[in-house]
Write a structure and sequence with these properties.
- The complex is a heterodimer of chains A (about 280) and B (about 270).
- Chain A is mostly helical.
- Chain A has twelve helices and two strands; from the N terminus they run H-H-E-E-H-H-H-H-H-H-H-H-H-H.
- Chain A folds into two domains: about 35 residues; about 240 residues, MetI-like fold (Orthogonal Bundle).
- In chain A, strands 1-2 form a two-stranded antiparallel ribbon.
- In chain A, strand 1 and strand 2 form a beta hairpin.
- In chain A, helix 3 crosses helix 9.
- Chain B is an alpha/beta fold.
- Helix content of chain B is about 35%, strand content about 20%.
- In chain B, strands 1, 2, 3, 4, 5, 6, 7, 8 and 9 form a nine-stranded mixed sheet that branches.
- The longest helix of chain B is centred in the N-terminal third of the chain and has 16 residues.
- The chains are: A mainly alpha (about 280), B alpha/beta (about 270).
- At the A-B interface, helix 3, helix 8 and helix 11 of A face helix 1, helix 2, strand 2, helix 7 and helix 8 of B.
C-alpha cells in the first residue's frame, strides 16, 4: 500500500486537530497550576474565606457548591429518569406528542444559562418565595440539566435491544419489573453519561447561580440559606476583586478536581446500582 | 427503582417543609453594585461578629439593581456606587461609606503620558483611531468601555459629556479587573477603571499606566483630598428612613471601626 501525498496531509491534519485539543487542555491546566498550586493546601479547603476571598480558604463555598449540586442532581435524576422512560416506552415512534416534547427538550438544552438564571430568580426566588437560597440555585440547575440528561438517557434506552424487552415480556415480567431489572441496567452507561454531563454543566455554572443561590460566602446552615458556588467565587475573584487571581486559580483547581470526582462517582454509582440487577 | 422512589419521596417531603424554616429573625439583605459588594460583605461579617444573632446577606447585580431593590423593598439596603440621580433621591436616602476614583488606563508600553479632555472625547467617539493622533506611536487604538448600567460608565459619560450611543468601543466589559486585564493584554488599548484597583495592579507589576485627568495625577490620595475630577461615592441607600437594624448597620459602616476594611478593598475612606 503506497500513500498519496493528499492522504498523508489528511492524516497530518487529523493528528493536528487531536493534538491541539490536548494542548489546549494542558495549557489551561498548567496555567492554573502555575498560578494556584502555591495557594492550594488543606487549610485552603477547610477555612472560611476572608478579605473578599483574597485570604483564608473556601470551606463554606465548597459546602455550598456540594449542597447546590446535591439538590440539582437529587431532583434532576429521578425526574429525568422518569421522563426518559416515558418518552422511550409510552410515546409512539414518530408520534406527535413525543416529537414535540423532544423538540422542546432540544430547544431547552441549547438555551444560554443566563436565561435559566433569570427564570430561576423569577420563579423559585421571587414567585415561590425561596429567596436567594441553595434550594433556588439547585432547582434552577436541575431545570437546566434536565433536557440534556433526559435526551441522553432516552438515547441509551432506545439502544437497548428489543429482544430483551420481548424476553422480559415472555417471562411474564410486569412493565415496571422489566424496566427495573432489564432495561435500566442495560442503559446504565447512558445514565452515567447523562449524569456526568449534567454535573459538569452544573458545577461550571455562574450565570444561573449569581441571581438564585447568590453571593453570600457564610457557611450555610440550611438549604434556605444563600450560598456562593465555587464558579461564582472564581468569577468574582478574577473579575471583581483586585489581587484575587491566586485564590481564583486555586479555587479553579479545586473545582476541576471536584468535577472529576463527581463524574467518577456518578459512573461508579450508576454501574453499581444498576448492573448488579442485570447479573441476577 | 424502589430506592429511587424512596429518595424522591424523601426529597419532596424535605422540600415541603423547608419554607417553614425561612422566617428571617434579624436579617439584613443588601443587594446591588458589584464594586461595593465585597466591601459590604466584609463589613457585614464584622457587624455579625459584633452583634450575635444578626445576619447580613449581600447579593450583587449592579447599582441599578441596588436602586430598584431598595425601592421595591426586596432589599433592606441597596448598594450603589455613584451619587443618586435627582429622581431617585426623591424616594431614596444615600449614606456614603467610601469614595472611589475612576481613571483612564493605558498599556505600560504606551509612551502617551497624558490626554486632554478633547482628546479623550475624540478617542471615545472614534474620531481619533490611532495613537499617532494623540501624540503616540503608529498603532491603532482599542477603545475599552463599560457595559450599560455600570456606574463607572455613567461617571465617565458625565465627565466627558458624551452619550453612550456616541461611544465607539472595540470592547465592552463589566467589572474593573476585566478592564485591567483587557488593557494589560493589549498594547493599543485604553480603558477606565477604579483607581484603587489600578494602583494595586501597578504595584503588582501588571503592565498598565494611570493617566492624569485634567492635570491631576490619578492617585487614591488625590481622591481623598477631593481634588480628582472623576470621583464617586460608594453608597448604602435606603427607602426613606432605614429600619432600626439597618440604621445600626449604616452607622457601623460609617464608623472608624471599618476603616481598615475600606482600605483593604482599595477604596478611600470619606473625609470626616
Amino acid at each position: 500500500m503506497h500513500s498519496v501525498p493528499g492522504d498523508r496531509l489528511f492524516g497530518l491534519a487529523l493528528w493536528g486537530a487531536a493534538l491541539s485539543v490536548a494542548a489546549v487542555f494542558a495549557w489551561l491546566f498548567v496555567d492554573l497550576a502555575r498560578l494556584g498550586l502555591g495557594a492550594l493546601s488543606w487549610d485552603f479547603i477547610t477555612t472560611a474565606p476572608e478579605n473578599a476571598g483574597r485570604d483564608g480558604g473556601i470551606a463554606s463555598i465548597l459546602v455550598s457548591t456540594l449542597l447546590i449540586l446535591g439538590v440539582a442532581v437529587g431532583v434532576a435524576a429521578p425526574v429525568g429518569l422518569g421522563a426518559a422512560v416515558w418518552l422511550n416506552t409510552y410515546t409512539r415512534a414518530g408520534g406527535g406528542t413525543g416529537r414535540r416534547i423532544r423538540l422542546a427538550l432540544d430547544g431547552l438544552a441549547g438555551m444560554p444559562s443566563i436565561v435559566f438564571g433569570l427564570f430561576g430568580n423569577a420563579f423559585f426566588s421571587v414567585y415561590l418565595g425561596l429567596g436567594f437560597s441553595i434550594l433556588s440555585g439547585g432547582l434552577t440547575l436541575a431545570a437546566m440539566i434536565l433536557p440534556v440528561f433526559i435526551r441522553t438517557v432516552e438515547a441509551g434506552l432506545g439502544a437497548v435491544d428489543d429482544g430483551w424487552r420481548r424476553g422480559a415480556a415472555a417471562l411474564g415480567l410486569t412493565q415496571s419489573a422489566a424496566l427495573a431489572h432489564v432495561i435500566l441496567p442495560a442503559a446504565a452507561p447512558a445514565i452515567g453519561a447523562g449524569l456526568m454531563l449534567g454535573i459538569g454543566r452544573a458545577a461550571a455554572e455562574t450565570a444561573a447561580l449569581i441571581f438564585t443561590s447568590g453571593y453570600v460566602d457564610r457557611m450555610p446552615e440550611s438549604l434556605s440559606d444563600s450560598g456562593r458556588a465555587l464558579a461564582v467565587h472564581i468569577y468574582d475573584l478574577s473579575m471583581n476583586v483586585a489581587g484575587g487571581d491566586t485564590h481564583a486559580a486555586a479555587s479553579a483547581l479545586v473545582l476541576v478536581a471536584l468535577v472529576a470526582c463527581a463524574n467518577l462517582l456518578a459512573v461508579a454509582l450508576s454501574r453499581r446500582l444498576l448492573t448488579r440487577r442485570l447479573a441476577l | 427503582m424502589k430506592h429511587t422512589l424512596t429518595f424522591l419521596a424523601t426529597l419532596l417531603a424535605v422540600l415541603a417543609f423547608l419554607p417553614a424554616a425561612h422566617a428571617a429573625e434579624d436579617k439584613l439583605v443588601l443587594t446591588g453594585s458589584s464594586t461595593v459588594a465585597p466591601l459590604a460583605l466584609e463589613i457585614g461579617k464584622r457587624f455579625e461578629a459584633a452583634n450575635p444573632g444578626v445576619r447580613v446577606d449581600v447579593q450583587t447585580g449592579g447599582s441599578s439593581r441596588g436602586v430598584a431593590d431598595a425601592m421595591n423593598g426586596l432589599a433592606d439596603i441597596g448598594l450603589v456606587s455613584r451619587s443618586l440621580k435627582p429622581v431617585e433621591a426623591k424616594t431614596l436616602v444615600a449614606h456614603t461609606i467610601a469614595l472611589d476614583g475612576v481613571a483612564l488606563i493605558v498599556h505600560a508600553g504606551n509612551p502617551v503620558r497624558q490626554l486632554d479632555d478633547a482628546q479623550i472625547k475624540a478617542i471615545y467617539t472614534g474620531r481619533i483611531r490611532d495613537w499617532r493622533g494623540a501624540g503616540g506611536p503608529d498603532r491603532p487604538i482599542t477603545v475599552v468601555s463599560k457595559a450599560e448600567g455600570r456606574s463607572t460608565l455613567e461617571l465617565f459619560l458625565h465627565y466627558t459629556g458624551l452619550k453612550n450611543s456616541q461611544v465607539r468601543a472595540q470592547a465592552v466589559i463589566g467589572d474593573n479587573q476585566q478592564g485591567i486585564k483587557t488593557v494589560a493584554g493589549n498594547p493599543g488599548a485604553i480603558g477606565y477603571v477604579s483607581i484603587g484597583a489600578a494602583e494595586y495592579a501597578v504595584e503588582h507589576g501588571i503592565p498598565i499606566r494611570l493617566l492624569p485627568m485634567a492635570g491631576v495625577a490619578a492617585t487614591t490620595d488625590a481622591v481623598q483630598r477631593g481634588r480628582f475630577p472623576l470621583t464617586r461615592p460608594l453608597n448604602l441607600v435606603t427607602h426613606g428612613a432605614p429600619s432600626p437594624l439597618a440604621a445600626r448597620f449604616i452607622a457601623f459602616a460609617q464608623s472608624p471601626a471599618v476603616r481598615d476594611l475600606i482600605e483593604a478593598q482599595y477604596f478611600v475612606p470619606p473625609p470626616r
